[in-house]
């Protein structure tokens, strides 16, 4: 985090909200139920998918990986597919209204196929009413959108590997003594990890990729593990910034010209 930005946050929390102390924590680290355990966090949000390995409670920064194929990319791909098929512009009426509708369609009807090639012709169609009253049917789009997590080439991102391959790559960058624990504690988090079938697909593809390795992929039903861990973590484990100490240091910094 940028130093000046951090200082602004601290100033706001201490001076306006009268917070007694602050600790800057990594959300991936807080996803692990046990703060000193080992695991790999797959955080699929709106704009970014992050793969973060944690060994004995410490993030392995040199091994973590992120890319921008996440919720927004899946939404944009869905809009592109439906607009090409039905010649409907999602933002033709009210700005943002159509995209909000598309987001609801994505969340309600899309899921991850266990075998995309085999399931393409077996998708059960779902009728959807568009904002202009037009009735459309979604079939292959239901599995085609989230498939970009496993086949980025569908949206022209040939340089990015599939999610299971990236997980293997990240784990291989960690010390080999942690590999068994990392492969058996793969945790999904983030709002865009809710797709039905995602956990099972990652586990299946990793098992094919590494056939002699035990693989365990986990997910918390409400994806609230970060907030739960924040509430129960050990206060002594993190570097707290105390309001009184910060004000003294802040005053000294001003006097010496560092701020």
TrEMBL record:
SUPFAM superfamilies per record: Actin-like ATPase domain
Family stated for the protein in its record: Belongs to the actin family.
Descriptive protein name: Actin-like ATPase domain-containing protein
Alphabetized InterPro entries for the sequence: Actin (IPR004000), ATPase_NBD (IPR043129)
Pfam family, one: Actin
Annotated coiled-coil segments of the chain: none
Tree of life domain: Eukaryota
SMART domains for this protein: ACTIN
């Amino acid at each position: 985090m940028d130093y000046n930005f951090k200082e602004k946050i601290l100033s706001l929390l201490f001076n306006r909200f009268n917070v007694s102390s602050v600790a800057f924590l990594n959300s991936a680290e807080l996803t692990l139920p046990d703060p000193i355990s080992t695991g790999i966090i797959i955080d699929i949000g709106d704009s970014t998918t992050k793969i973060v390995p944690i060994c004995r409670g410490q993030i392995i920064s040199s091994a973590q990986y992120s890319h921008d194929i996440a919720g927004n990319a899946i939404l944009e791909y869905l809009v592109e597919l439906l607009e090409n098929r039905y010649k409907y512009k999602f933002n033709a009426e009210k700005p943002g209204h159509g995209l909000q509708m598309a987001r609801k369609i994505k969340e309600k009807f899309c899921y991850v196929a266990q075998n995309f090639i085999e399931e393409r012709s077996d998708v059960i169609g779902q009728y959807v009413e568009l904002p202009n009253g037009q009735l459309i049917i979604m079939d292959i789009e239901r599995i085609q959108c989230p498939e970009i997590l496993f086949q980025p080439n569908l949206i022209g991102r040939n340089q990015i590997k599939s999610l299971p391959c990236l997980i293997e790559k990240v784990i291989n960058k960690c010390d080999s003594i942690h590999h068994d624990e990392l492969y058996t504690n793969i945790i999904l988090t983030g709002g865009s990890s809710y797709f039905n079938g995602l956990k099972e697909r990652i586990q299946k593809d990793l098992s094919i990729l590494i056939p002699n390795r035990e693989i365990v992929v986990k997910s918390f039903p409400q994806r609230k593990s970060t907030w739960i861990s924040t509430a129960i973590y050990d206060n002594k484990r993190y570097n707290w910034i105390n309001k009184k100490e910060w004000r003294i240091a802040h005053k000294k910094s001003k006097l010496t010209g560092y701020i």
